[in-house]
Structures are given as structure tokens and as C-alpha cells.
Amino acid sequence: MTITATSTTGSSTVDPARFRQVLGQYPTGVVVVTALDATGTAIGMTVGSFTSVSLDPPLVAFLPDKNSSSWRALRESGDRFCVNVLDADQEDVCRAIATRKTDKFAGIDWHPSPGGNPVVDGAVAWIDCVAEQVHDAGDHQIVVGRVLDLDLGDGDSPLLFFRGGYGSFMPHSLAASDADLLDQLRLVDLARPHLEELADRFGTEVTAIALVRDELVLAAAAGHTEIATGPTRVGQRLPFAAPLGSCYAAYGDDALRERWLASIAGHLTEQQLERLRGVPDMVRERGYAIALGHSETSNLERISTLVHERDPGVSAETLREAMARVTDGYNPSTPLADLVELRSLSAPVFGRDGRVALTLTLWGPQAPVDVAAVAEYVGALLDTAAAATAAIGGVRP
Ligand SMILES: Cc1cc2nc3c(=O)[nH]c(=O)nc-3n(C[C@H](O)[C@H](O)[C@H](O)COP(=O)(O)O)c2cc1C
Q1: What CATH code is carried by the domain that includes residue 359?
Q2: How far is the CA of 47 from the centre of ligand 1 (A)?
Q3: For position 214, what pLDDT does the model report?
Q4: Average model confidence (pLDDT) for the chain?
Q5: Does 348 lie in the same domain as 382?
Q6: Taking a C-beta distance cutoff of 8 angstroms, is the pair 3, 80 a contact?
Q7: CA distance 317 to 131
Q8: Per-residue pLDDT, 310
Q9: Residue 363: is its pLDDT beyond 90?
């Protein structure tokens, strides 16, 4: 590679340990920059300083240490290289390529990119480049590469590096790639401060759930609840079926209400089905939905988490069975007992068209609560839902 050097000079008064400590607060992704050497052997370097630079022309960059032997080998191999974005489960690849060994790719499966560079199997993405500029930058260089070709790989969640440790991305709201949710995600952004305020006030989790076709999608979460079994529930999808999602059924037309019952009906008794037919009107009258009981609902939570993690051992039928088993705890028509296990309360947020745009769910505490506490939760949730409706410019029908 030819180096067009713009020299940076001058001594620093910054303590190196402090520099590392402070800059370590900034997380990075992890890529492996690869090429083939003159003998056709795969060579590479683990890099956290990769960044996208320009769309037109398409440019990316990374910053190698001037003293890195891996960088020297890459430079000597020519001006072509491939950037591999590592997946969260490829920490072993990251470590293997970050060593000073020579045969770093032993035991790592890869295939050639269109440009002939190694693409590590299972990477999230790969980007074939030609180095266009190499700038001098202190003890590092800035390599600017023009993108020749690129594609997504088999991996789906990138490896992250932060304060010397590795991790993966845990979203608080869904990524914009969930195209079917884009409209709701815009609304979630506007409503988010209200979710956070409510979660803070009760020290629990507040979630925003969207109805997308036949599914209820957990689109955003604020705060935390002990009820959740996984590290994050954002992205969880459950079928739009009774008893879940009753706020949507409450403000929906007859066809929606029918859909809400149809797919679960086979798992319910006649008596349960009959009671559920009255639930939408009751929820509409109350203005909120309530779920009680922790034992069966914990089972549903466990199974939904397994479904979310794509556990092949959990079928759609198992999930509906678990949903059917919580039916009696949802929206009871009788008055509440003095002490109840409050699972959750949900209320609708209305869009500009007067239809339910999102529902907000306030998760109750593990310990039983009295009727006055439930009333306090309900009041706060309804105020928050009203504020969120106003924030998105919505109108209550
Ligand atoms: C997560 C991670 C990120 C790294 N990022 C960079 C980087 O941006 N630039 C760099 O020169 N070295 C980086 N390194 C270090 C190199 O991958 C490699 O460990 C080091 O250059 C080894 O020395 P060698 O190149 O002389 O073999 C990183 C290492 C790790 C583990």
C-alpha cells in the first residue's frame, strides 16, 4: 500500500492509563481485517477502531498501530482487504486473531470473498475494500478503504467490546430493521419519556406493545421487573390471541374481536370462551386491562422467552396452551380480593386516527398488593397513557 502521510507531531501531557480508562468508556464493535499473503495463507488482525466514513464514494476506515506486526503483514500482502464484522458468539475468533501467532486461522472456518479475501464463517457482515489512503496519526495510522463489495453474513448480532470486556447488544427498543414496526417505533420514541417516568416512579418495568398483523410485539421497554426471565424482552412476539392484547380487542371492530378469540378457542372451555366474549367491552368501560397471579403467568413468561430465543423444543401449540392457562387471571369480572398478586396493567395509547396505536403495560411487584395500591397503579398508568396519546398527537375515540 502507498502511504500519503500527513504527519502529526507533538508530545502529550495526558497520562496513558487515564487515557485508556476514559476512552475505554466508549464501546466499539469488533472486526477482523483479513487478506491472503503471498503464499495464499489467511492473515488478519482484530480491530475495534473500524468505522464507516462516506457513502459517496463508499469509504470505511480503521486505525492500526504502527508497530503491529499483523498490520505490517496486511500491508505487505497488497492493498486489498476484507473487513469481517464479528458475531457476539465469535469472541474466540476475536481472541485468536488478536494473538501474535503466525497461524491464526487454524481452526477458524472461512471462505473467500468475491475479492478473494477470507470471510469468517458466521460473521455478521463482510466488506471487501481497497486501501485508498493511509494517514499518519500519532502512534497509529488511519487506513481509508474504498468499498468494492459487501454483504450480510450468517451472524445477526455483533460482538461488542467495552471496558476490556465482551458483550452483545441488548436493545431497549427495537432496531429500525424491524420494517413492519417502523411506524410504531416512531411513536414509541415520542412516548418514551412517559414510559421512563412511570417505570421510575414504581421501580418496575413499563413496556410498549404494538399489534403488527397477527402478532403482539414488545416494541420498547423502560426500567426492569423481576418478572422478566430473559435479559431483555424487547422484540418478543406473541400471537394476538385472548387473553393477551385485550386493549386492542376492546377498541377494535367485531372482526378484530373475533380474530382475538379464534386462534385460542380450541384450548378453552365453553365457559372460558363465553366469559372472554364479554372482556373487550369490560376493558373498554374500565379503560385498562388487568392480569393477576404469578404462578401460571411465570410459566407463560418462561415459554415466551424460549419462543423469543427460537427454542425448537417449544411449539406454537405449547405457547397457546400456556396462554390459555392464564386466561382466568386476566380481566376478572368480579371485584378484587383485599390482597392480589398484580401481574400487570395495560392501557391503550391512541393514534391520530383514534385507533389503538400502542398499549402500555405496567408490571406489578412480586409481593401481593392491596386494592388501594392497585388503584394507585391504575391512576398512574392511565395518566401516562393519556400523556403518551397527547405526545403522539393522538385522539381518544
Ligand atoms: C477488541 C480488540 C480491538 C483491537 N483494536 C485494535 C485497533 O483498532 N488497532 C490496532 O492496531 N490494534 C487493535 N487491537 C490489537 C490487535 O488486534 C492485535 O492484538 C495486536 O496488534 C497484536 O499485535 P501484532 O499486531 O503485533 O501481532 C485490538 C485487539 C482487540 C482484542
Answers
A1: 3.30.450.40
A2: 5
A3: 87
A4: 90
A5: yes
A6: no
A7: 54
A8: 74
A9: yes
Asked if residues 221 and 236 have their Cβ atoms less than 8 Å apart, the reply is no
Query: Which ligand 1 atom lies nearest to the CA of residue 94?
Result: 31
Cβ–ligand 1 distance for 47 under 6 Å, the answer yes
What pTM does this model have? Answer: 0.64
Nearest CA to ligand 1 atom 27: 100
Question: Helical H runs in the chain?
Answer: 16-23, 69-77, 91-97, 182-202, 246-250, 254-262, 270-286, 295-308, 316-325, 371-391
Which of 108, 133, 168 is the endpoint of a domain? 168
Considering the domain boundaries, does residue 9 fall inside one?
A: no
Closest ligand 1 atom, residue 30 Cα: 1
- Could you tell me if 104 and 219 lie in one domain? no
Quick check: helix, strand or coil at residue 347? strand
Domain boundary among 168, 187, 210: 168
Q: Which of 45, 77, 90 to mutate to test the pocket of ligand 1 (most atoms within 8 A of CB)?
A: 45
pLDDT tens digits for range 25-72: 999 999 999 999 999 999 999 999 999 999 999 999 999 999 999 999
**Ligand 1, closest atom to CA 62?**
8
Q: Which atom of ligand 1 is nearest to the CA of 100?
A: 27
Interval between CA 49 and ligand 1 midpoint (Å): 9
Cell of residue 370, nine digits: 392491596
Which residue's CA is minimally distant from atom 6 of ligand 1? 47
Joined together, the cell numbers standing for residue 69 give 506486526
Ligand 1 atom at shortest distance from the alpha carbon of 47: 5
For ligand 1, is residue 63 a contact (CB within 6 Å)?
A: yes
